[in-house]
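Title: Comparing notes on inverse folding

I've been comparing how different people in this forum approach sequence design from structure. To keep things fair, I'm posting one structure and asking everyone to reply with a full sequence. Here's the target:
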């Protein structure tokens, strides 16, 4: 899974994603990184060991017949479940079944149904048999039920918050511009919101689903679509069946109006379910899927094992994407036109979800404690695909950002990858399980070599096919193939916490001609963090421009290595290929060595490091010609990210002629850089430091560039520069569907108060998924603060609806803040209290009467919401 979006976790996610959206030089990986990680920020501190769920009876087969009550957001279901006792005799069966109305529970024997006794407590259904079953028996139960995923009572006091398993989008059809859809999200244990099951990752089932829907909808589920049949009243039943077993959390349904674009891989169907208006772009979005399937099949030594592969876009998806078996689900941000894809694409997520079809779906972690066996591999597979398809520049960048993501989380909390203490399994979906997991696999691969690693994976996948595993299964397979004892590696990296923090000191002794390298492990050794054992490689560039390399084995806290060299090296690189997961704090590098590092390192990461170190250490960038020139060379770096960093971070020189050559370079990058992200950053910097009329006019028609990302930067800056042109552009582009441009237009409208604005805000709040609504709500907030009573009144129903209905917690918060601000600012207008804000609404004249009406109306709306919600965060924002 990517990007869980769960009520109590999603706050930080949304803040990050919103602020990234507002920034100009948007880095897609960065967005994806901040959005896709479950930046779970709660640490339970729970210490009790969580056992892997016991298997009393094993689920064998699931047969579902479902139809939908759109109006009430319910599902009518009939489930037939086949089980066998695992080892011990069983006279009862306990199923997960959340927020159901149970209608019938029967035993099914030779097509005869007999009633069974049961007890139901809204979380579990306990069925009693009148005989005992042994492990040689199978038995079938039939359950007729109604699923109520929106049951308020249940959500309020239930044990599970923030997930409902089954979602209806625009269920009453009243929200103009929003698609009507039904989709599911099972991970971690939420599929039991729509069918009764043993909702645990160490169970597996084959499945059949009969879905009855209006004929205008397409459906998608696991396995193959065997047939569709009209059943009267314009309704159709689709029959989906998967004959290969998978855990219940991977079962799925999606219903909506889709265009299906079909590809193939070998002789399998590969389908892309997109919105009809994106039909012509479906191949641009998903078209590399067959090549990925071939690549992973070859690399992992096991052919893609499922009956088909489909990918579907859904509205308001609560995760970023989900690897449901043979039917992956994606948030709608992934759906982009070809022009938009040049700004940003989400192919890494496509690789991630596909890789789960081996790691997660085919071989499954037996408990959420072992989640790294799913997510670490899926994250590492993003790297593998990037390395194969786009080469080292791209894959090194991924390594670097995965490391940075993990290290930033590790600053606030450090856990072992495999851990048995948590309050909610969602806590496992963090940067440890994803990024650290991927980086540890990369080290493991380098430790035993490519051939042993991938043959080991093949053995792991083959031996444990269609079974649940724990981390030792992986170790045993890799040991078996390589003949190497990997206990220490696994204990250190999977079962202990933390990573080495290395203090590395270099000193060259000219008499003995020795490069002395002192390595000190200085991590905090509390909380299970060990002294690490690892190899570390150093690489030097000699004065004769020859590269030399040496690897040292670190086994204790302090080491002192000597390396005989002819002369002092021009450059020293620690861990040249960036394999070791460690923070390496280097000391003793001279300024000239850093310049050399900036110039001569093949690896993107070392150039970036040198750039960071130089910016931090060199004092006279602004005043020294030589220093400024040297550092400005990064504007020509071959990696777009370093060019981007250079544009944003090199301080402005005080030397006039260098200043103008810097400006010319920015103009050149804006005009010619192949990366839109770099062009956008260059334009932002030009406006910031050289925003005079003459320079801007040299850039040509800013609003006529193809890239939306660049256009959005232009528009944001243009308003303060030439409001008339900006508003002209806005009025001609109110219908745009591009999220970057929508956000930029929203900002302009928040300053201009033109009447067309309200329709724009309302239309897009209806249309966009919650993930894209945040910055729009912030702009709408400012706009309404400069608006009359009539406009505020027209805004209220939608805002109230967002606060009480949206799946995005940050969105709800933003909408609540909007109400609070409307009330409080207008109160201040009435009392004449100073308004401490420099936004344009401050200067808009609102009549006293309007302000009074606004305060009264908004206070009433707030009262209404108070009655409907028990969300403490919202209540806190809306307190008087
Ligand atoms: Zn995943």
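Reply #1:
Here's my take.
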């Amino acid at each position: 899974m990517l990007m869980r979006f769960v009520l109590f976790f999603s706050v930080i996610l949304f803040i990050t994603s919103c602020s990234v959206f507002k920034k100009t030089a948007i880095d897609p990986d960065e967005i994806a990184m901040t959005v896709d990680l479950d930046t779970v920020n709660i640490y339970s501190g729970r210490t009790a060991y969580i056992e892997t769920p016991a298997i009393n009876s094993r689920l064998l087969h699931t047969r579902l017949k479902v139809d939908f009550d759109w109006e009430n957001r319910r599902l009518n279901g009939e489930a037939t479940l086949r089980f066998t006792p695992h080892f011990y005799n069983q006279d009862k069966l306990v199923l997960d079944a959340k927020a159901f109305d149970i209608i019938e529970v029967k035993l099914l024997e030779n097509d005869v149904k007999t009633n069974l006794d049961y007890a139901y407590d809204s979380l579990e259904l306990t069925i009693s048999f009148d005989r005992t079953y042994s492990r040689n028996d199978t038995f079938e139960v039939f359950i007729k039920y109604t699923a109520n995923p929106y049951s308020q009572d249940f959500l309020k006091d239930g044990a599970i918050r923030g997930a409902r398993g089954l979602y209806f989008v625009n269920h009453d059809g009243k929200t103009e511009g929003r698609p009507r859809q039904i989709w599911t999200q099972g991970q971690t244990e939420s599929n039991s919101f729509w069918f009764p099951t043993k909702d645990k990752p160490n169970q597996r089932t084959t499945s059949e689903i009969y879905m009855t829907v209006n004929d205008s909808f397409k459906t998608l589920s696991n396995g193959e679509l065997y047939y569709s049949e009209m059943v009267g009243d314009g309704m159709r039943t689709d029959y989906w069946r998967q004959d290969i077993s998978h855990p219940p959390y991977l079962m799925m349904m999606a219903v909506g109006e889709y265009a299906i674009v079909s590809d193939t891989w070998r002789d399998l169907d590969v389908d892309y379910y997109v919105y009809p208006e994106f039909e012509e772009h479906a191949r641009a979005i998903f078209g590399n899927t067959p090549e990925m399937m071939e690549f992973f099949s070859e690399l992992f030594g096991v052919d893609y094992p499922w009956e088909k592969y489909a990918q579907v876009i859904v509205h308001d998806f609560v995760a970023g994407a989900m690897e449901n078996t043979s039917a992956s689900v994606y948030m709608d941000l992934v759906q982009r036109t070809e022009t938009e894809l040049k700004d940003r694409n989400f192919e890494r997520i496509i690789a991630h979800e596909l890789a789960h079809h081996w790691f997660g779906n085919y071989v499954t972690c037996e408990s959420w404690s072992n989640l790294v066996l799913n997510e670490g591999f899926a994250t590492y597979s993003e790297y593998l695909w990037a390395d194969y398809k786009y080469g080292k520049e791209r894959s090194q960048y991924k390594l670097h950002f995965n490391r940075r993501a993990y290290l930033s989380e590790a600053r606030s909390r450090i856990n072992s990858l495999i851990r048995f203490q948590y309050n909610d399994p969602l806590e496992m979906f963090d940067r440890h399980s994803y990024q650290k997991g991927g980086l540890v696999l990369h080290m493991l691969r380098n430790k035993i070599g490519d051939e042993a690693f991938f043959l080991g994976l093949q053995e792991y996948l083959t031996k444990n096919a269609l079974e649940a595993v724990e981390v030792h299964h992986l170790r045993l397979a890799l040991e078996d193939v390589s003949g190497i004892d990997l206990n220490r590696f696994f204990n250190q990296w999977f079962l202990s916490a933390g990573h080495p923090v290395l203090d590395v000191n270099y000193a060259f002794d000219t008499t003995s001609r020795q490069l002395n390298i002192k390595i000190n492990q200085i991590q905090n050794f509390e909380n299970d963090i060990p002294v690490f054992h690892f190899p570390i490689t150093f690489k030097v560039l000699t004065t004769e421009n020859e590269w030399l390399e040496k690897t040292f084995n670190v086994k204790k806290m302090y080491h002192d290595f000597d390396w005989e060299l002819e002369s002092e090296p021009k450059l020293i690189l620690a861990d040249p290929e960036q394999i070791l997961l460690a923070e390496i704090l280097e000391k003793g590098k001279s300024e000239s060595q850093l310049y050399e590092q900036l110039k001569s390192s093949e690896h993107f990461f070392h150039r970036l490091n040198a750039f960071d170190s130089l910016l931090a250490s060199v004092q006279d960038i602004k005043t020294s010609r030589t220093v400024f020139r040297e550092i400005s060379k990064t504007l020509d770096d071959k990696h777009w990210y370093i060019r981007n960093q250079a544009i944003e971070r090199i301080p402005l020189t005080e030397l006039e002629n260098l200043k103008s050559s810097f400006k010319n370079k920015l103009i050149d990058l804006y005009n010619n850089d192949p990366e839109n992200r770099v062009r956008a950053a260059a334009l932002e910097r030009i406006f910031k430091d050289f925003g005079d009329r003459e320079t801007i006019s040299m850039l040509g028609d800013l609003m006529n560039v193809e890239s939306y990302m660049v256009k959005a930067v232009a528009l944001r800056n243009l308003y303060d520069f030439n409001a008339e042109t900006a508003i002209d552009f806005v009025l001609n582009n109110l219908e745009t569907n591009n999220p970057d441009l929508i956000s930029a237009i929203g900002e302009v409208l928040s300053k201009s108060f033109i009447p067309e604005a309200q329709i724009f805000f309302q239309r897009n709040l209806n249309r966009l998924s919650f993930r894209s609504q945040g910055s729009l709500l912030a702009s709408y907030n400012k706009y309404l603060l400069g608006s009359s009573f009539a406009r505020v009144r027209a805004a209220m129903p939608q805002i109230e609806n967002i606060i009480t209905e949206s799946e995005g917690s940050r969105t709800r918060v933003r909408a609540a803040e909007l109400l609070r601000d409307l009330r409080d600012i207008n109160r201040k207008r009435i009392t004449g209290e100073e308004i401490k804000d420099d936004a344009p609404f401050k200067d808009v004249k609102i009549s006293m009467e309007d302000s009074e009406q606004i305060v009264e109306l908004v206070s009433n709306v707030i009262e209404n919401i108070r009655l409907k919600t028990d969300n403490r965060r919202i209540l806190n924002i809306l307190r008087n």
